[in-house]
Specification:
Helix content is 38%, strand content 24%. The chain has 316 residues and is of the alpha/beta class. Strand 4 and strand 5 form a beta hairpin. This is Glycine/betaine ABC transporter ATP-binding protein. Belongs to the ABC transporter superfamily.
Length: 316
């Protein structure tokens, strides 16, 4: 779907991106992860030609993007800018309507689609007549996303979409991201420097450092098979939490004690990771689970001891 081949970009003395190649599959979310200045934004902006690479080529659906007219290219690619990038002197409605106006939609269609997205993103309709600085940071970020989604582009580029938010709001919007139908079938390249966010939202992760790719792979691969010490160091400190997030509850199923539930309402074990189950167990003493017709009760001690056994068995 999106393919970068040997892409480089230099600004004066700074080699921002050094000969990188990767591809993103249709419908996949690829996260560009790395510390400040490692070249994430530059990489993203080359995909919609806001920056032209010096070397290398980029293809979208097999077509070299140099051969596609810039405006046409950008109409098919939603772009959420770092720090939302809303125009301060435009109202929210005007900000959101920029692409639809270029597409010559009539006002009725623009209005309907605006309302639909504001509703999906939990934004009150009254904000339409307000200006960006009259909104909270979280609301501005959501408007930035709404703007990018208006014309339902198949590709979405998001640069630190949750960047300026406090951890609680960030976590909340992250959960919404995971369930938002508008994002489900899109091919997404998302930038973040937040390791947990990358692991939660990315189907695959491209870890960058000083303009180069350190490692690209599935979250679990980076955790369990880091290519070198730099990758390992980058993830250090997040390892325990991330490994609990990547281990699914069903992979421990056989190690759970065999209690029979007494017809209590049970949760599908397939929808949990060890981490999310622990989260629930903070509030509840026991959770009732089902998996393939079997039912089990689980408490925190049972979960921890199953995890121990699982690790001893070296299943993963
Ligand atoms: N227009 C520019 N002119 C000069 N140098 C630039 C320009 N844009 C980026 N750079 C430099 O290129 C490098 C990569 O910048 P880039 O914005 O891609 O980093 P980033 O990974 O997005 O960082 P951050 O997480 O801080 O947003 C940095 O050293 C930056 O200073
Ligand atoms: Mg950046």
């Amino acid at each position: 779907m999106i393919e970068l081949k040997n892409i480089s970009k230099t600004f004066g003395e700074t080699q921002a991106v050094k000969n990188i190649s990767f591809s993103v599959k249709k419908g996949e979310t690829l996260v560009l992860l790395g510390t400040s200045g490692c070249g994430k934004t530059t990489t993203l902006k080359m995909i919609n030609r806001l920056i032209e690479p010096e070397n290398g080529e980029i293809f979208i659906n097999g077509e070299n993007i140099k051969t596609i007219q810039e405006e046409k290219l950008r109409l098919g690619i939603g772009y959420v800018l770092q720090n939302h990038g809303l125009f301060p002197h435009f109202t929210i409605a005007q900000n959101i309507a920029i692409v639809p106006k270029l597409l010559k939609w009539d006002n009725d269609k623009i209005n309907k689609r605006t309302n639909e997205l504001l509703e999906k993103l939990h934004l009150p309709l009254q904000i339409k007549e307000k200006y960006p600085n009259q909104l909270s940071g979280g609301q501005q970020q959501r408007v930035g996303l709404a703007r990018a989604l208006m014309a339902n582009p198949p590709i979405l580029l998001m640069d630190e979409p949750l960047g300026a938010l406090d951890p609680i709001t960030r976590n909340q919007i992250r959960q919404e991201f995971l369930t938002l139908d508008e994002l489900l079938n899109k091919t997404i390249v998302m930038v973040t420097h937040d390791v947990e966010e990358a692991f939660e939202l990315g189907d695959r992760i491209c870890l960058m450092n000083e303009g180069e790719i350190l490692q690209m792979g599935y979250p679990n691969e980076l955790l369990t098979r880091p290519k070198n010490q730099l990758v390992s160091n980058f993830l250090e400190g997040h390892k325990l939490k991330l490994s609990l997030k990547t281990v699914s509850l069903i992979s421990l199923w056989d190690f759970f004690p065999n209690h029979k539930s007494e017809n209590l309402e049970s949760l599908n074990a397939e929808s949990f990771t060890v981490w999310s189950a622990l989260d629930i167990l903070q509030d509840k003493k026991t959770i009732h689970l089902n998996f393939k017709g079997e039912q089990k009760n689980l408490d925190a001690i049972g979960l921890v001891s199953a995890l121990e056994k699982y690790k001893q068995n070296g299943t993963e």
